[in-house]
Amino acid sequence: MSKKVLVVDDSKISRMFIRQHISAQNPDWTFSEATTGQEAIDAINAEAFDYCTMDINMPGMLGTEAAKIILEQHPELRLVIFSANTQESYQDEAKALGTILISKPVNAESIAQALAYFAG
Q1: CATH annotation of 4-119
Q2: I need a labelling partner for 113 at 20 to 30 A (CA). Which of 12, 77, 79, 80 fits?
Q3: pTM, 2 dp
Q4: Which of 5, 112, 12 minimizes the C-alpha distance to 51?
């Protein structure tokens, strides 16, 4: 079954790795990308997505701020936060948002965590 994924990260390389790893296991899924929290909010308000991956440190707005806005408006969306910032405060914030924080770098193990979370 085809799903739609929004990959949000200011790093083109990170977006590429996330997309590659997920699509390797789910070739029928479609992807869109955003480079800022505001772009992510705009994209999700304009188009329905099943899943979203979100970086924390991006220009303009933290990914956790964008995730809070997105999940308040679209609670059905399954969103994971990928970040090299794995401090306890970020993990606690992710839990409070009803999501999970997955440590970068993106690899087979971290993608497996995201896919397991997406599956519920």
Answers
A1: 3.40.50.2300
A2: 12
A3: 0.95
A4: 5
Give tens-digit pLDDT for 45-91. Answer: 999 999 999 999 999 999 999 999 999 999 999 999 998 887 888 88
Where in the chain are the domains? 4-119
Task: Write out the H or E segment, with its range, that includes residue 33.
Answer: strand 30-34
Euclidean distance between CA atoms 10 and 57, whole angstroms? 8
CB under 8 Å, gap of 24 or more: what pairs does 18-27 form? Answer: 18/53, 18/82, 18/106, 18/111, 21/106, 21/107, 21/108, 21/111, 22/111, 22/114, 22/115, 25/111, 25/115, 26/115
